[in-house]
Write a structure and sequence with these properties.
Rossmann fold; 6 helices; 16% strand
Length: 200
């Protein structure tokens, strides 16, 4: 099943109002509730592990979640998209967003509830939630590593450490090229896309 199927499953469970939530309207706030236990987030996790099948494009780019929702409106994601288009790689690259508490968000659902409607500042991630994040991410990574020929991640230190810990758990430390998201976002994202472009 594609990630879009999740939106239909969620609407069947809770109502078609999920299609009417404006992207960017914050409805799930980690400062007010434990989003790791929220039923809609838990349902996404179950779908991600049991039913979701990654899009079979040869290349994948993992970007960090952003305070701006949907992610595509953030400077980093807009930059990545523009470089991918400029390099004529749109039909070869799938983008994922690394997120607490959503784990991994395929680009095709990032404008829908709940992905475009939550707030989770990284400093709110406690030790137990971080441990859960790493564990769940390691399970999802096993699914995408076997599908894409090459995966490159551009992440700030917080998300980079989580990704590296998850890769260690699944014994795949060399399966993803990880680029530190430095002060010069353009340089980091450009380098990531260049790596994807020169995949043989």
């Amino acid at each position: 099943m594609s990630a879009l199927d999740f939106i239909y499953i969620l609407s069947e469970r809770v109502g078609e109002w999920v299609f009417e939530v404006p992207p960017g309207k914050i409805m799930l706030d980690a400062s007010k509730t434990n989003l790791w236990r929220h039923p809609h987030v838990v349902l996404w996790h179950e779908f991600l592990f049991k039913l979701w099948e990654p899009t079979a494009k040869p290349l994948a780019l993992i970007l960090p979640c952003t305070s701006v929702k949907p992610y595509m409106l953030s400077a980093t994601h807009r930059l990545a998209e523009s470089i991918i288009k400029r390099e004529k790689l749109s039909d070869q690259v799938v983008k994922y967003t690394l997120s607490e508490p959503m784990i991994l968000v395929p680009e095709e659902v990032e404008v829908y509830y709940p992905f475009a409607n939550y707030n989770y500042p990284p400093h709110l991630l406690g030790d137990s939630e971080r441990e859960l994040f790493v564990k769940l991410l390691s399970a999802v990574l096993r699914k995408i590593i076997g599908v894409h020929k090459r995966i490159v991640a551009v992440l700030p230190k917080h998300h980079e450490r989580i990704l590296r810990d998850a890769l260690r758990i699944c014994g795949a430390e060399q399966s993803i090229d990880v680029i530190s998201y430095g002060k010069l976002a353009f340089k980091s994202v450009s380098h990531a896309v260049k790596l994807l472009k020169h995949t043989r």
